[in-house]
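Dissemination and training. As part of the outreach component of the grant, students in the summer workshop were shown how a complex can be specified as a set of sequence lines and then modelled as a single object. The example used during the hands-on session is reproduced here so that future cohorts can follow it. Participants entered these lines:
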Amino acid sequence: MRSFIRKLLLKYKVATLLIVFAFFLGWEFLSQTRFLNLYIWYFFRPPSTIVSELIYEAVSLKLMNNALFSLYRISVGFAIAALIGVPFGLVVGWSKLGNEIFGPLIDLFRPMPHIALYPLLVILLGLGDQSKIFLVTLQCFFIITIGAMYGGRSVDRLLVNQLKVMGARDKEIFFEAVIWSAMPFIFSALRISIAVSWIALVTAEMIGATEGIGWSILFYEKSSSFAAMFAYIFVISILAGLMLQILLFAERRLLRWHRALAI
Amino acid sequence: MSYLRKVARKLPSVAILAAFLGFWEWLAHVGFISQQLWSFLTPPSVIVARSFTLFVEGGMLYHICGTLYRGLIGLLIGVSLGVVFGLLCGWFRVLDEIIMPIFEFLRPLPALALFPLLLLLFGFGDLTKIVAVALQCFFATLIPTFYGVRDVDKLLVDSARIMGARGRNLFFDVLLRAATPHICNGIRISIGVAMVVVTAAEMLIYIVGQYGLGSLISWTEVSRDYPTMLSSIVVVMLLGFFLVWIWLKVENKLLFWVRETAAERV
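and obtained this result:
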């Protein structure tokens, strides 16, 4: 019996759900009763209000509009960065010459906060989607490129030599060995860049936009409808979580052979 | 000799960078497309001259100190909490099962999405920015630390057990050691992320009398002082680069037993 309860609590995440439930119940109760008349209950509206606000936003299609705008920007920016960065980084990392030429340059640009360029991008590309997409691309590109670069560099030389002995051509070595052994590096870079690209997008939308989730959060904060603000914060965590889960799923499928840390 | 070789290896990329800057300078000089464009994209010579002026008499150092203060305090809080919680969740199974799903859910949430809320709670001062940085760094270090401790090589743990390691010894001498590369990874990512978040936060609130490079960027954009804007952009980007560079040096000293250099563990 005890082991059954233990299993129920731990394995089926009942304990976690109970904690989360208690947290929201406590929030609801304290907020409804305006506990100690604290001013924070003015911001922390009860979860029931937040849910009803969320439903209102969803029904009036504002939610979908904003979410689609944000998703469009982030996915296009991210896709461009990945589509250019991965092949470029792989080739640069694999070839000695590429390493010599581009290695230090990418090392220089990677840790920079490219978000600082956003005002300049706004001046050059306008306040529309282009500047935001470009910012996301810029922020992700160097992280992804460097991941692919170190991946291409880290190929086991023994493996490559064996393949050469067995008569593989350079092209075959690249497609059969280099790409696959670089995969874990590429995926860890993609994971980091998803997190960073959401930061960049939200900031960009807060600085200047007329739609999008980041804009909605700031808009509802300014117009003092804090329940709607919380609703959008909830939406953004769901969307970012979904992107991460899709990536983790792809990683698990593609990298079955690799006993990796699923960080 | 080896030092010379090190410099020589950097030469091609320096040449590319120089060519790029020279091209930019030339285009601005010619006035390619329109003269107005190059009043936004002021040529490198103007940026360098303006940076020099700012450093000497414009109080650029105050701005750098402001950004560093917020970024580093937030980083310190976030990283230390992240490491502690990561170690606890990795060591105690119960915490792993109960608390970790909550952290996993909260982890992808960008701290900047909470920024308006933090603004309401902590006001327009430094605290808001510090909390935003700390939040983002917390998750950036928590996750690698947790998986580093949890997925430690079982062979290592078992052999330590056989040799009589228990409790504290097992934790400090085996698990913590084995997880250190992952923790360092988390910290390195956190430094980059902290710079991004602190710049973004400063760009969102800019008030007279508040020093910070992000605020300076926003201010000068609004007041159309483009040379100053570009030089503060260059300074903040170089600052991010140097922080990570310093950390890589520290990490290489710290992890002397790991075969590959710090930069190669993405």
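Chain A has two domains: 2-44, 50-254. Students were then asked to discuss how this feature might be tested experimentally.
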